[in-house]
Amino acid sequence: MSDKHVRKHGNVSNRAKPTNASERKVVYKSVLDNPFKISWPKIPSNVQNMAFAGLMNMLNGVSDFNEMKKKACRQKRRLVSEPDLNRKKRKVEKPTSLQGTGTLPIETSDGQPSDTLQEQMHQEIPTSTQAPVILEHITVGINEVTKKLEALSRALREHAVNKGKARAENISSSTQVVFVCRPDINPEALVSHLPSLVAACNSARPKDTPSITTLLVSLPAGSEVSLADALGVRRAAVVLVNDTAPGYDAVKDILSSIPVLVASWLGTGPTTQASILAATHIKQIRTTAPKDMKAAKERRQQGRSAAKERRKELAKKAAAARVVEHTAEPSGS
Prior knowledge:
The protein has helices spanning 45-58, 62-85, 87-92, 95-101, 115-124, 142-161, 194-203, 223-231, 249-255, 293-328, and strands at residues 24-32, 138-140, 176-180, 214-218, 238-242, 282-290. By secondary structure, it is α+β, with helices and mostly antiparallel strands. The strands form two sheets. It has a four-stranded mixed β-sheet, sandwiched between helices. Strands 1-6 form a two-stranded antiparallel ribbon. α7 (194-203) links the parallel β3 and β4 (214-218). α2 (62-85) packs antiparallel against α5 (115-124). The termini are far apart.
């Protein structure tokens, strides 16, 4: 048996009909849990805090770059839209007065911005800002990280099936760490697929690369807001970081204690043991049942008979209506 704590699921179904509580009793039904389910790795809170601090240090400077990039985009949109806003002014004022000042952007006859507008755009929008190097080694967002893990797992499986003869462009030659703000995600089902994907990537790894793995790290509660601020975005629930990222060596020793997720039924990875079976986990579902089963069956049978009679009556009425419509139609000449 598993050592997990009992969790009660007592929500009323939306399809449940209102019944008299005095006529029913509480019962528990035993069901087997899914043996192919991959659980989240158990990470101590101090390790989570140190990993989060190391991740924040690696993301230093990303927020400033993204904010400057957003500001430049807003300026570009404003400069491009100014000729449309000044069309009414050009109808009232003389064209020579607009061209003589040299301050307002002028639009040509073919709808393209004039030289004055282009000069203002190049003067106000910075173009020489270099992006931080860390952006080349990270992937942000649930969807983007999921796509990357799926592509890696697919490439590894094809590489294993073809015995190394398949194309290996999508196979990563570095360790990848998936940081997830699991306590801050609501509903948690949005990231429930990540343990299975990470285990699939680790289990399909070639046996000659045992040190290259994909780790899954849960961050402490409240880390999503800080992570989004460090990246300069609205939301950041999942971040994937390669071990080639600058500053990764500072958290390498911390992440070495995190367990590696594997799927034993895949059986191709270096750390996979296909002979190990998953422990049996029996769940108890809390529900209700009638106190008098015989009386409940009789009432259910009576309800079915009554519904059958109603359907027959409706069919008779519909047939009678069709006969009346047919007789009321005038005969053709």
